[in-house]
Structures are given as structure tokens and as C-alpha cells.
Design a protein that fits this description.
This protein is mostly helical and 131 residues long. It folds into 2 domains: 67 residues, no CATH class; 63 residues, no CATH class. 56% of the residues lie in helices and 8% in strands. A hairpin with a 5-residue loop joins β1 and β2. The longest helix is centred in the N-terminal third of the chain and has 16 residues.
Length: 131
């Protein structure tokens, strides 16, 4: 059996993504992580579990697709919904929605429909200061 521990200090959006990612690890047949007291990764950083980049990327991608399906995402974009509105609908983060837009090749269409939002975000990126 497998155990998933969600951080109660994280919001529901993050926990939804985390739980779906963990379900996808099982679905994809990934080997369960091994918890340890202390270990070092290949970069010398102290970690408390094994980590496989390819498995994590695959599980996140499949989990994100399950949480934000392509057909619904495409429909919301064509209706002019913002990434924030789409995120609220699916109870996920705006970052996850925008990740789905990018990997689904819908980002260009989204940017065309929301040029002012994109311009302002590019202008004000980084610590709330204007570039």
C-alpha cells in the first residue's frame, strides 16, 4: 500500500494538485519513494526522500491533465475566460492552468485574447516592482 501525506498548511488548490500527482504515480507504475532520515542528492543538497525527475515530471503532467482537461480548457479560452477564472473553476492554481495552456499549445491563443493582462504581468514581474 502507499501513503500520501498532504500538508494541511497548503491550500486546497495545491493539495488537489499534489494528491492527483500522487495518484498518477500509482497509475503510471512508478516506484514509491523511500523515506530516509537524511540523505544527499546528486547536488549535495540534503533531502528526506528519493526523487526521480522523470517520474515527477510525468506524474505532474498527467495529474495536471486530469485536473484541467484539454476540451474544457480550450472551451474556456475560446470564451475569453482568464487563467484566474479557469483556476477558480477547477480549484487549482493559476500556474497549473497556465502550464496546461503551454503544454497543450493553447498559450498563444490565450495571449491573443488577453494582451493587456500579459503586458501588465510582464511589466510587473518580480517582487511587485516595475521592470
Amino acid at each position: 500500500w502507499r501513503l500520501v501525506i498532504l500538508n494541511p498548511k497548503h491550500g486546497s488548490q495545491r493539495n488537489n494538485a499534489t494528491l492527483m500527482e500522487e495518484v498518477c504515480h500509482v497509475f503510471l507504475g512508478h516506484k514509491a519513494n523511500r523515506l530516509s532520515i537524511v540523505a544527499e542528492n546528486k547536488h549535495g543538497k540534503t533531502v528526506a526522500r528519493d526523487y526521480n525527475d522523470a517520474d515527477e515530471e510525468a506524474a505532474y503532467a498527467v495529474g495536471a491533465a486530469a485536473l484541467v482537461p484539454f476540451a474544457a480548457l480550450s472551451s474556456f479560452i475560446s470564451k475569453g475566460k482568464t487563467s484566474k477564472e479557469i483556476a477558480q473553476h477547477f480549484n487549482v492554481s493559476r500556474e497549473l492552468v497556465e502550464y496546461r495552456m503551454k503544454v497543450s499549445r493553447l498559450w498563444a491563443e490565450y495571449k491573443l485574447r488577453h494582451p493587456e493582462e500579459i503586458r501588465l504581468r510582464e511589466q510587473w514581474s518580480g517582487n511587485g516592482r516595475q521592470k
